[in-house]
């Protein structure tokens, strides 16, 4: 449950899927982006969660692909959520770059650019049976999803 130390190539793939669109976004922020001040407590949760998720994703070999079993469905579900996350980024980049477009739901999933990767990392933690990733996903979820919901409420 604590995890086995080593390098996780699956964790690296997830982090690349997470960071690359965010780097592109930093050059293509919404045209009406206000950058409103964020709740300091939520921001603290987000930052701590980011560091813990990043470290956990890379240092636990439990996330690497093992022989297929029913337990592998956790990894498949997690990866599907990351694919949907990428689809949401494609939707944003190919549509008008507005805050409303950035925060809009995806087939009923609220703030998908925040909630999908958090859920994916939570399921990755379950797949690897790594309590540190599960806790990290909960921590980042509180901050990151909370901040996105605040931004969404501010533009409505």
From TrEMBL:
UniProt keyword annotations, A-Z: Membrane, Transmembrane, Transmembrane helix
TM stretches of this protein: 6-25, 41-61, 73-93, 105-124, 130-149
Protein name, UniProt field: Uncharacterized protein
């Amino acid at each position: 449950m604590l995890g086995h130390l080593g390098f996780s190539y699956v964790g690296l793939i997830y982090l690349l899927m997470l960071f690359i669109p965010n780097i592109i976004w930093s050059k293509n922020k919404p045209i009406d982006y206000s950058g409103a001040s964020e709740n300091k407590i939520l921001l603290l949760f987000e930052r701590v969660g980011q560091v813990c998720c990043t470290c956990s994703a890379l240092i636990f070999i439990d996330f690497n692909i093992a022989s297929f079993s029913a337990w592998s469905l956790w990894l498949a579900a997690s990866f599907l959520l990351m694919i949907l996350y990428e689809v949401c980024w494609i939707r944003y980049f190919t549509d008008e770059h507005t805050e409303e477009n950035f925060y809009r739901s995806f087939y009923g999933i609220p703030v998908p650019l925040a909630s999908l990767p958090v859920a994916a990392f939570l399921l990755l933690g379950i797949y690897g049976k790594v309590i540190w990733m599960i806790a990290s996903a909960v921590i980042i979820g509180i901050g990151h999803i909370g901040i996105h919901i605040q931004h969404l409420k501010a533009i409505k």
